[in-house]
């Protein structure tokens, strides 16, 4: 392709069009800055500025002397959920058991108009009852349209395109999609049965991470939760990097059977604690509580005001009505206990058949590690009527060989049959 232009903007547009129409394929090298500048008869700084803009837009990656590589247009990535009308028994979607979800009814106490406080008084009371024990004094309370929306808004507030963030490896699909869309670089941090590994996070911080995103409980896909010792070690490590923002995605909070252990140092840094209501009240309820520092809250309010404005008070009313009801709260508590019982039952059935899974584990899913690529096992389980999620889609750097099995809605007989089938397919 012939690149044209006499200004940085014109050169950027020329390359952008070439990427869009397929003349510049992903992975192809752009000419060196000096060479293209001489060809176009412009200053090298003009070409360098165009390349920098391409990098910021996520269309190319600049690697100094290694050159500039075309990334190409954004590709569709794996998402939670499964296609409707699936003939197989769906164990891949990551969904809660519909039978365990409370009935949501939207009934507004009174019409809300422009200028109304963005967080309803009832919702403030409920959110603070959850967040107060785990947030520094004087924190700000905000709402977002679910955890993934909160992650996207926070990273946009904290980071510039190309800034690097330390994330768990393997990582939640929603987080991976947000990072890809935002053009953020990732620094993978290995996970074990107790969450983020301390030395792996240290390496990411030393490599220049400007933020950390971690899951304290029910890590997706592995089910790991931080214990007190690991959280303390991570907190001590982060204290040495006060310039690094900390984002905690406590997505399973309302259902968790594990205690919450904070990794936040007491230093007034940029931080946020997200608690989604989706797992407990239903994925379609796009609502999450967010506690954060005051400076972060100010930026988030500006971004909300320019876009969606606020989280609907009708959603807040529906969630508040459930969370203020003692019988409904009891149902949520019972649901968390049932999910844990089903997960542990499947683990015990697998161990009895010689298949080991990481311990401890919590959440809607069971993680079964495999020695190699999961493709053959996924197909073999499909032939037996089960649709499971291959682990490779969760990988950041290290191979995530395994299968993630959403077992939240399985009955006892189904758990036994699944264990037999997993032994037949994965036991060799």
UniProtKB/TrEMBL annotation:
<comment type="similarity">
    <text>In the C-terminal section; belongs to the class-I pyridoxal-phosphate-dependent aminotransferase family.</text>
</comment>
<feature type="domain" description="HTH gntR-type">
    <location>
        <begin position="5"/>
        <end position="73"/>
    </location>
</feature>
<keyword id="KW-0805">Transcription regulation</keyword>
<dbReference type="Pfam" id="PF00155">
    <property type="entry name" value="Aminotran_1_2"/>
</dbReference>
<dbReference type="InterPro" id="IPR000524">
    <property type="entry name" value="Tscrpt_reg_HTH_GntR"/>
</dbReference>
<dbReference type="InterPro" id="IPR015421">
    <property type="entry name" value="PyrdxlP-dep_Trfase_major"/>
</dbReference>
<protein>
    <submittedName>
        <fullName>Transcriptional regulator PtsJ</fullName>
    </submittedName>
</protein>
<keyword id="KW-0238">DNA-binding</keyword>
<dbReference type="Pfam" id="PF00392">
    <property type="entry name" value="GntR"/>
</dbReference>
<keyword id="KW-0663">Pyridoxal phosphate</keyword>
<dbReference type="InterPro" id="IPR051446">
    <property type="entry name" value="HTH_trans_reg/aminotransferase"/>
</dbReference>
<dbReference type="InterPro" id="IPR036390">
    <property type="entry name" value="WH_DNA-bd_sf"/>
</dbReference>
<dbReference type="InterPro" id="IPR004839">
    <property type="entry name" value="Aminotransferase_I/II_large"/>
</dbReference>
<dbReference type="InterPro" id="IPR015424">
    <property type="entry name" value="PyrdxlP-dep_Trfase"/>
</dbReference>
<dbReference type="InterPro" id="IPR036388">
    <property type="entry name" value="WH-like_DNA-bd_sf"/>
</dbReference>
<keyword id="KW-0804">Transcription</keyword>
